[in-house]
Amino acid sequence: xxxxxxxxxxxxxxxxxxxxxxxxxxxxxxxxxxxxxxxxxxxxxxxxxxxxxxxxxxxxxxxxxxxxxxxxxxxxxxxxxxxxxxxxxxxxxxxxxxxxxxxxxxxxxxxxxxxxxxxxxxxxxxxxxxxxxxxxxxxxxxxxxxxxxxxxxxxxxxxxxxxxxxxxxxxxxxxxxxxxxxxxxxxxxxxxxxxxxxxxxxxxxxxxxxxxxxxxxxxxxxxxxxxxxxxxxxxxxxxxxxxxxxxxxxxxxxxxxxxxxxxxxxxxxxxxxxxxxxxxxxxxxxxxxxxxxxxxxxxxxxxxxxxxxxxxxxxxxxxxxxxxxxxxxxxxxxxxxxxxxxxxxxxxxxxxxxxxxxxxxxxxxxxxxxxxxxxxxxxxxxxxxxxxxxxxxxxxxxxx
Length: 400
Fold this sequence. Notes:
Helix content: under 10%
Oligomer: single chain
Strand content: 25-35%
Structural class: mainly beta
Largest sheet: 8 strands, antiparallel
């Protein structure tokens, strides 16, 4: 599926120049960055990144990369679907993008990225590899590769899968780059076209990084929530949360409690404005709701940030682990990831925690939500919002 952005009139295709950083990234896009940060860079420069397509596998979002594509500039960003971090930059139309390396430029409509030009700019390297089936020769540098199509009449120039450097054909011509790959070189893997593309991995997270930090939830007689090894109980104060998680990314008041109508024990009039307020930790994928009168935690909301959900790109992915082996009711341990646990990668099954009856429908405003409704399954102290493809969008923890 694709989500095209509005194109700004008068923007010239192929007119941008981006710094090429082998093994690190290109322009403002850095290998390992979360997808939310990439979108933030795009939003900061709408006149440059004016046509943007987001591609993903709607039915199985963890099976294939999430891709942000810039068709006017001839490159796209590939994000690992599980961690949602950038693992590979591919320039698929070198004539549309001019790359700057050190003080020189290559590619774009005016500077052909020929084999000789690449070799002259980046210097000596080992012989590359020749894919006979694809007719493509790939030249490798640390964290960087260039693919060159070899005409069938010149395949003899690539004997035993290698070629003389710099590569020139008998008629004096030299092949022109058809694809450039930028990837992390710390694993020592060579990344190129075809199956070699799958070898690109996200770089290790820097020391002390909180991204993808596991959030643990224990179900049972007592519900508890833990992040970074620190237990944050229901009833904790805003000061307690600040101490454990730091300053929230945002704070906003909950205007109307839409679920209060389902609570027979709540004495408040159904039209009363709700004084409760949220602490939003967008970079952790967590919302925390405080009671407006007691200023104590009453609810946690965990977000998976799957594409195809109305909140996609509003939060980074929360890497939660729900321990539910002691949950009241029958738990089918054969359904999901590991024994007695539900994670952000688990696929929903109706009987995962025992039958909960019919699901409530969540539309989030049908006129403004192009992805359609989701389904909410409620249990004691727990609610799952599930997308149509069966993956969990949010988990809400509360105390009855």
